[in-house]
Amino acid sequence: MATATPEERYETITRRVAEVLGGDQIKAILAEGKSPKCYWGTAPTGRPHIGYFVPLTKIADFLRAGVEVKILLADVHAFLDNLKAPLDLVAHRTKYYEFVLLAVFHSLGIPTSKLTFVQGSSYQLTKEYNLDNYKLCATVTEHDAKKAGAEVVKQVDSPLLSGLLYPGLQALDEQYLDVDFQFGGVDQRKIFTFAELYLPKLGYRKRAHLMNAMVPGLGGGKMSSSDPNSKIDFLDPPEVVRKKIKSAFCEEGNAEGNGVLAFVEAVLMPISQLRLERQRGLTGADSHEGEGAVGDQTPFAAAGAPEATLFSVERDEKFGGNLHYSSYAELEKSFVEKELHPKDLKTAVANAIVRLLTPIRKAFEDSEEWQQIEKLAYPDPNAKPDKKKKKEKVYHPPPPGKGKNAAKPAAGAGSAPAITPGPDVAAEAHTAAEAAKQQPSES
């Protein structure tokens, strides 16, 4: 923020995060009047879902506080993560993720010109990086590597060495991307503490770490790319969104494990807050926020709602009329006390998600390149292979006297069928006969 105090900048950087490790390091940088540098990374494996709105929305706060942000497309990590992305798909999925992230940022009004996109393989295959990786391998125990990746790397009974390398590479990324803190989900906490422990052993400084809460799946538990019933894809059409929300777990009066309520808290209300603040010019150091934004940029509040409303549930007057909430605590209290019915909540949430996804789907539909990449990155497993065309037969006429229309010998002749000599043979026979007539006869 151009005129904000270090304390105000720090509050903006850390608001709504679930946990901060090493916050004093960030405070020290801000106290010097400098701009902290951070990165958020994602491994392009399964199709990204709307849970990604949580970290991507938070990046707006970083830019408002003057943080330099790098987005890591961790293609090497995607390959190393057991059973998720075969090598021949990683390149296509990396490109697909880039399309999705750019579309989401544009829909949120976050200026992508202030973001630096980095592909992991651009530096993770260098001599220096690999030498540091070998140094880590000579220091880290198998137990520590497996423990660090327990919440992120696919766990199997007999883990491959590739999965054990994953946490070490993520730790090295902090050094090679030259950042002051890394941002990720709370599911990466063990990798973050692993980095804090092992980077200093290579002579590198320890970084800070910020973590956002994970959005529960629609049926409870973690929202996962590998479980289509737990999540909503960025490209899901409105009818699919409404169907998934309708079937989501949302027991009346019960806020525990309620993915519908959690989505309002983690995504819809923060986006509404960003939009309200933008309307008031409260974008701090990011004076370009909102420029070029696509889609409806108004908060998720009904017409005529109180000024501070972050989320509205529209109802017919005979059912009590509209409900307006300026905080999640108000919304949860209303739901637990059964003032707000699950059906009305689901309808409001589904409508809000459709609004969020409309500009993203339009960007996809307007881009032939993105559509082609989508088919290559996530081929239909049920698609039938193209049938090979049968080789076209070429007609070769039979030689003279052959074929089904050739003359047949008279019945009962008992002799071999007559052979009609070809034109060359007949000519030679005629020449020989003429020559014989010219020879003198023997007396």
From TrEMBL:
<dbReference type="InterPro" id="IPR002305">
    <property type="entry name" value="aa-tRNA-synth_Ic"/>
</dbReference>
<dbReference type="Pfam" id="PF00579">
    <property type="entry name" value="tRNA-synt_1b"/>
</dbReference>
<feature type="region of interest" description="Disordered">
    <location>
        <begin position="375"/>
        <end position="443"/>
    </location>
</feature>
<dbReference type="InterPro" id="IPR050489">
    <property type="entry name" value="Tyr-tRNA_synthase"/>
</dbReference>
<keyword id="KW-0648">Protein biosynthesis</keyword>
<dbReference type="InterPro" id="IPR002307">
    <property type="entry name" value="Tyr-tRNA-ligase"/>
</dbReference>
<keyword id="KW-0030">Aminoacyl-tRNA synthetase</keyword>
<dbReference type="InterPro" id="IPR023617">
    <property type="entry name" value="Tyr-tRNA-ligase_arc/euk-type"/>
</dbReference>
<feature type="compositionally biased region" description="Low complexity">
    <location>
        <begin position="402"/>
        <end position="436"/>
    </location>
</feature>
<protein>
    <recommendedName>
        <fullName>Tyrosine--tRNA ligase</fullName>
        <ecNumber>6.1.1.1</ecNumber>
    </recommendedName>
</protein>
<comment type="similarity">
    <text>Belongs to the class-I aminoacyl-tRNA synthetase family.</text>
</comment>
<keyword id="KW-0436">Ligase</keyword>
<dbReference type="InterPro" id="IPR014729">
    <property type="entry name" value="Rossmann-like_a/b/a_fold"/>
</dbReference>
<keyword id="KW-0067">ATP-binding</keyword>
<keyword id="KW-0547">Nucleotide-binding</keyword>
